[in-house]
Amino acid sequence: MAQHLREALASVNSLLTLNDSSGTSGGVQWIGLREVREKTTICHARDEKPYINEVQDSHGIMVEVLANGQFGYAASSSRDGASLRRAVERAHTQAMQASRWAIHRFSLEQRPVTTAHYSSSVQYPLSEFSAGTLNDVLISICQKLQRPKIVRTEAFVQAIETDVHFVSSNGSDAHQNFSYLTADFEATASDGSLVQSRTDGGLRGRSYQGGWEFIRDPALWSRIERVSEQAIELLSAENCPSETLPLILLPDQMMLQIHESIGHPLELDRILGDERNYAGWSFVKLEDFGKLQYGSSLMNVTFDPTVQKEYASYAWDDTGCSATREHLIENGVLKRPLGGMESQLRAGLAGVANARASSWNRAPIDRMANINLEPGTSTLDEMIASVERGIIMESNRSWSIDDFRNKFQFGCEYAQLIENGKITRTLKNPNYRGVTVPFWNNLRKVGNAETVGTYGTPHCGKGEPNQAIRVGHASPACLFDGIEVFGGGAV
Ligand SMILES: [Zn+2]
Fold it and tell me: What is the pLDDT averaged over residues 287-297?
């Protein structure tokens, strides 16, 4: 699709107002065209039968215009020259209307030139599997999950192939080809009125960039047995006690903890108030950057879209800004917000390349990409051995956090009690609660690279109209001191 987008740009470039890069006359200062073609395949098997088989295709172009210091947007599913000219005119009108109430004036600095190309690293391309083969795989997973007391089995795969081409009047001409895979499976066990479920990666499954290699991975097949056995084990487990204890969180719960209590509060558009009507605000203030002791000195958090295979890796964001690894929190101190070029200008803070759109019919806004907690030095055994009485929790089951991303309460699928440095019992219905900054300041040990798990989700929601964006999170296991835990929440 490369050539026709360049031709489309050439056909609308005549609308640019030459010799008016400042835009003071109200002419068009800049035009960007972002074409997105995406194919989504969803297969879901329940109790060894195909349950959902779906293929969605999406293809269109976002037209962005800078005029009089403001951006205007108009998307088009028709890709002919006349439709795109109309879209440029609509976006221009919108920008001019917005400029009457402008607080900040943008320029070409907010739309840097990119010519970088990116492709997900893929071993077995998504196009190689037929729906029939995929259903056979999911039915096999269901069969392997089946055993006495298991009353429901499910297996799910979502495969997305995305091709993005971005061209602009100041010389951007760049491609990104993504191959995304999300997979999960679940076993539900029942005994009388007791019901317990285990999944492979908590409520959000596992998401990666790559191909079918994740389904063919022997590690996935060895996890199936564990999921099924633990669902049954939970039926006879005691409820999690209500106490204040040391708590070890494994990576598939750390993912949610990072997402909700680091990622969202550090989104710069939220801090600036843009999302207070919908996704919420943030307890973080502009003056906190460089000063706030967000967590203990063991806490190092990066924005890192450069990790191969992690779900939200890319070379440039949807404004053409080059994606680089940056520390958001270093030795516990808050350093940098998740803000793209426009938010950076508004806030007067350095940010990251994170202005992203969920599709061709949405404008880019500040999002997470891969937000990772960097590994420390402790082994999981050392963490367990250091605890006199405490709890290990894994796999998110429920979450609740306030609009400011301050007070939270999270539930997990599975927990174990630690007594005198050893795991002694399984616990069901585990939950914990806390307040973001005190919680992270209670971080006592950070697991080493061997404890790291990499996860992601396609379902991070934000923006009006809503945009579900893909994010990745990698984390080691972590030990927190003095956490309020409690049981309940399921039968
Ligand atoms: Zn989210």
Answer: 98
List the shell of residues around ion ligand 1, using CB closer than 5 Å. 460
Instruction: Give distance in angstroms: CA of 462 to centre of ligand 1.
Output: 7
Residue-by-residue DSSP string for 287-339: GGTTT-B-S-TT--EEE-TT-TTBTT--SB-TT-PBP--EEEEETTEE---B-
Measured in Å, residue 368 CA sits from the centre of ligand 1 at 8
- Distance (angstroms) between ligand 1 centre and the Cα of 260 equals 7
What percent of the chain is modeled with pLDDT above 90?
88
* pLDDT > 70 in the chain, percent: 97
pLDDT number for residue 490 = 54
Mean of pLDDT values over 165-187: 97
How remote is the CA of residue 353 from the centroid of ligand 1, in Å? 17
pLDDT band at residue 23, thresholds of 50, 70 and 90? low
> What is the C-alpha separation between 318 and 191, in angstroms, rounded?
51
Q: 461 C-alpha to center of ligand 1: Å? A: 5
Quote the ligand 1 centre to 468 CA distance (angstroms): 8
Segments making up each domain of the chain, as ranges: 2-38+56-111, 119-237, 243-486
The H or E element spanning position 189 is strand 173-191
